[in-house]
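Quick entry between incubations.
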Amino acid sequence: MKKIAYYPGCTLKTTGKAFEQSAFAVTGALGIQMREIERWNCCGTVFSLATDDTMHHIATVRNMIRVEEMGEREVLTLCSMCYNTLKRANEFIASDPVRLSELNDFMYKEELKYSGKVKVRHLLELLRDDVGWDALKAKVTNPLEGVKVASYYGCALVRPAGAGVDSLEDPTVMEDLVSSLGAEPVNWPSRLECCGSYHTIGHKELIFERTERIVGQALNAGADAIVLSCPLCEFNIGARQHEVAEHVYAFKQIPVLYFTQLMGLAMGIEPGDLGITDERVLAWLSEKVET
Amino acid sequence: MIELGKHTKSRRDILDKVERISEVDVFACYQCGRCSGDCPSINLMDIMPNQAIRLLQLGEVELVLSSKTIWICASCFTCTSRCPKGIDIARVLEALRQVCLRKNIDELDLNKIPDEERERYPTIAWVSALRKLSG
Amino acid sequence: MKKPRIGVFVCHCGLNIAGVVDVERLAEEAKGIPGVVFSKDYIYMCSEPGQEMVEETIKEENLDGIVVANCSPSLHEKTFRNLAKRAGLNPFKVEVANIREQVSWPHENEKEQATRKALTVVRETVKKLAGDLEFEPFQIPVTHSALVIGGGVAGIQAALDIADAGHDVYLVERTPTIGGKMLQLSETFPTLDCPQCIMTPKMTEAAQHPHIHILAYSEVEEVSGYIGNFEVKVRRRSPYIDWSKCNGCADCAEVCPVNMKSEWDEGLALRKAAYRPFEQAVPNKFTIDKSAEEAPCRAACPVHLNAHGYVTATSAKEYGRALSLIRDEAAFPFAGVAGRICTHPCQEACARQEVDDNSVAVKHIKRWLADWELREKGTAHMDVETSEPSGQRVAIVGAGPGGLQAAVDLRKSGHEVTIYDAQDKPGGMLRAGIPAFRLDKDVLQKECELVFKLGVGYKPNTQIGMDMPLKKLIEDYDAVYLSVGAYKEGKMGIPGEELDGVSGGVQFLGELNRGKTPKLGKRVAVVGGGNSAMDTARSALRLGSEVTVIYRRTEREMPAIADEIHAAKEEGVKFMLLTNPTKFIGEGGKLKSVEVIHMKLGEPDSSGRRRPIPVEGSEEILEFDNVFLAIGEKPDLSFITEADGIELTPWGTIAVDEETLATSNPKVFSGGDCVTGPATFIDAAGAGRKAARSINLMLEGKDFTLDRANELSRKSDLVGDKDLATPASLKPMPELEVADRIANFNEVELGYSEEDIVEQASRCIHCGGCSECRLCEAACEPDAIAHFLEDWTEEISVGAIVVATGYELMPLSAMPEYGGGKFKHVIDAMQFERLLCASGPTAGEVRRPADGKVPKKVAFVHCAGSRDPEHGVAYCSRVCCMYLVKQAMLYKHAVHDGEPYLFYIDIRTNGKRYEEFYARTLEEDHATFIRGKVSRLYEHDGKVTVYSEDTLTGQPVQLEADLVVVAPAMIPSAGATELASKLRLATDEYGWISEAHPKLRAIETLTGGVFVAGVTQFPKDITDAVLQASGAAGKVLAMFSRETLEREPLIAEVDQDICTGCGVCEEVCPYDASTVDSVKKKAKVNEALCEGCGACAAACPSQAVKLRNATRTQLFAMIEEATRDY
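Done. Structure below.
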């Protein structure tokens, strides 16, 4: 059974529980043991773009030390933003011995100094590169035939160049996953567009505008559901759909699932065990997917 | 009306700051407009990203600092990944935000957010918002 | 005669024809046309398989002629004629029926009619073919040498490429050096090579090339002939230096005192009139820049002194040379006299007045030179070569300036001259009429003696008429010149003129000048307003009297020169204007008082001065002891008798022909005051000179009446260059204090100091360019200076011509919104190139031409006149974007804290490494690019405000610039259009030479054997210009690779039996191909010249001229076919 260090990040312990739950369910089924890091701390959620101040990256490095304390060289993430932030911060620091030692010196209380060697990975990479689509297909007991799925990457999973899990302008990893599950990936224009991210707090209107567009285009493309890998995207274009509905005349809603949840369904795992609780989604499931 | 060459001193100062924070040279920009062409947040911006860069070139830094645009940008990096001259526009806008934030001028006013809503927002949203929009 | 076997081939031209015309049916029906034995259609007749099919058919069906129904003959007639040749059919038995341009295209919506029309076209063409005869093309020789017009980079490249292949090339360049505009550039984009480094070697290579003959400072005057055989007349402009002797040592320029603007430095630096455009010029020769016209001062002089010359020499402190120009070269003795009392028409004409209202002090300079000589050498000199004795004798009556000048000129021509004069000393009115305080009599004496030193006979105290009759002179001498002046003083014709105390002013002056001092009373009146009135008044004043000038008009109408009136006033002479005496009242025969009446001014009279009218009852009596009348003199001609056969005028002067000064007596000439009435010294001298010329011509037995108009004094339109004006203003002539002069007769004017005179001389703005002071002659060791060398013509025969006359920039004056050239801190891009250039006027330091300041903010204005059909030209000049980007970069490199701002509409960087170069100015030099055309410029206190918009931000922008560099549109260089017409080349609406085809034949012109290279065809950068030049050379070499060229035989021929030699064909022929033999009175056609246009055939009234294979019979047959109904 493969073991891997796992960094959950704050949201997966709060509004994004379902993501973690479903992830544990499917990885377990695939014989992968995600070992949660002890005493992890928030990654900072956004990679600081200011190049003149390394302190913005200290949170990340602490987490890396935790990983090394576990004797691990890799760390797995589910949340796109954690993935993006950890990966970039890690590379930014590790790539420059001066910065690295700066931070290590700052954290003199830590028992060991960070080597800069930890590799940050995303579950999608793991599935594609380590597990492989065929192995995954083998585990599919309930192929999602006839289900049209719009894969939503958003920003953090692919941008900027070098930081993503896949090609910058034409990623396929989620579509490959979807087809491995027997479902039909749809081709649609918004899959790489931003959901509005943290503006959900200050600028609802912006989120609604984005969500209306993204959901609308998914539906136009004939999708039955959207899958994604970011709890913030999920909140913005998933959880907030009913609010959009209140503002936009004749706004049609669409189920939004974490890719792990879709996997679970295909692998015959009970929706309950995948953290799927939303009535509307369940209703949709009963009609679209035999479980 | 823009008076060219008037802000030479302050222009250089702030541009230097922006450049120091972002390590980007805005003068490479030849104004193709590709960045604005695919910006997901463009509808809420008052000046377009390319115009922001343009105004920096002309030394009209204040106009940019006082724009909504720099705060609307959510660093989705679409512009950065598409710029033909390799200008990291997202970084430039971040630097401009930093110039403001480091003067302890917060963009995000938490008091404006109703309590019932506060409960629902994902932590991730809080943390990023605070990191991006407050000092 | 055997039946014709004609084949018809119908081409679909894809759907171009087949889409409209029913080609199958056409082919089918064509079979029915008499004579047609075969007909077929095919999709692309011109294609390989199409041609093979036609070729095969010709052989198999053994056709004796084919009609191809397809596109315009201009496209494929040749194709099918060549094909016919291959198939063994005479190419001229091929006819094209144009059913595309003339049928399918214009009739696309009327298919049925189109098909019918197509059939008609085919029918008539078959008819024509039936009448076609077989011809063989004939050969014409090719002269294996080329003419390249224009010595810029394109011209040089073409010349080198052709010459390298071993053919002679004549490289004609208008300026004194080859190299063209490229050489003026500082550096070239995008490699930043300096043209001086990459271009000068090419120039040298051309200069040293055994096959290249550089004809610099020359222009193509006339081109005749035709492809392979051109006859070219080249006008070699005189450089006024013998280039075969000139060794480029620059000594002439060294001594040349004349500054002019340097074309090479775009007027930002000066050069001499004797110049070499720049040090590396090729050929390395000097040229003297002379205008065809003379400077105004020089032209205006009645004795034709070279004022420009001696002023210039004076400015160079070459006083000897200067004086020699007056005395020796102009044979004018009176430098000192004229320097004092000349009324200087030269100064009236002087262009310096346009700069600061005052002319150059030519008169004072002349005086200074004469005084200098007396000071330095003790006496005056005049070194005039006298020709071999002619054995002929001339008598001159009157030793005034006119007589003396005539004497000099006649003596110079070798004649024996004798002057008869009534006075005891020479000088005439100069001596008698002009007081010593104006003209030092010693100076006069010395200069008069110069005349006698030449061997002129002088008989003083001899009054013709009394001491000897005029008749005798006329008999004894071969010619007589009467220059007796006007001494008889006018009377007023009022009571009391006979009174003692009333006398003439001139008489009074005469006495003074003869050393007498007439006793005068306290109160003296002088009547009159002329110079003699002033002289009289001022003289009387000096004898201690109170003097009043009484004049009937106002000061404005006074004929006296202003200086004199002024001096008189200064000295205390009173003026009683608008007043006239009506009666002199005496007591015991002696004057006691004068009754005067006051006047007012009425209408202008014949002289243009307002006529004075007496005011009724304004009479008053004034007390005077003496009155001098100075109201004009008349000549005393009592010595002329009927027998002398010399007519007089009603006004009592001698009647002469104005141009020749001949009197009615063929041996007698006359001039000066006795002809004109009282006039000036210089007019008299001029008359003497003019008469001398007549007399000399007459004595040489020549017709002296031929074109004598404006022989001496005339008008010049030259205006000089105001920018060359030195700041020095006219310095007033130093004079004796009034107190020191009114008690004596000493000269009032004291003359200038040496540094003053040099400063004054340097005020000249050199209207004529070279002043012909000829200081260079002395300086030139190899003795190469040739001031009188004239233009000459050189004739060359060439087989091909390459036109590379290049461009110039649209002048700023055409752009009022950008200051129209008036703003000091707005310059054009070529000027900025010079400022950036190491070999430029500032040695590469960027400084404002106007004040030498280093500009910190420079605005670069793109598209000035370009892309502006409303105010300039519609096209893009193509190089401005790149060179302005380059200039911005070079400026930034030269001035590190400088800020370049480029105002553009689009940045066009369409060349290898151009975009990268542009990117550098953005990324490395941080040049600011404003997307917006500059709306206008406004210059104020040393800055220029630039108004524009940045269309990228939608914001209006303004810049306070220190310097503005404008990139004007490129336009064809001056004279390009004239040249084009000489070469029978077409030009577009802007004057660029039209190429044969904009894409496929952009090097050929529509005239065979003439090619175009470089910007002459259209604006392009150096790279493209050089490419096109080499291309042109390639075309030429292709021609030269053959001994002969083929010419179409389808030309006009003349039936000698019918031709009446009327010459109509000669008139209508645009190629000068048909000429009438003057002997045989028959027209003949030059096969090589004839283009077969048919104009002559149509025009010939007797139908003697035929155009081969387009005879009347053929044409009428076609028309008949076309018009008959089926």
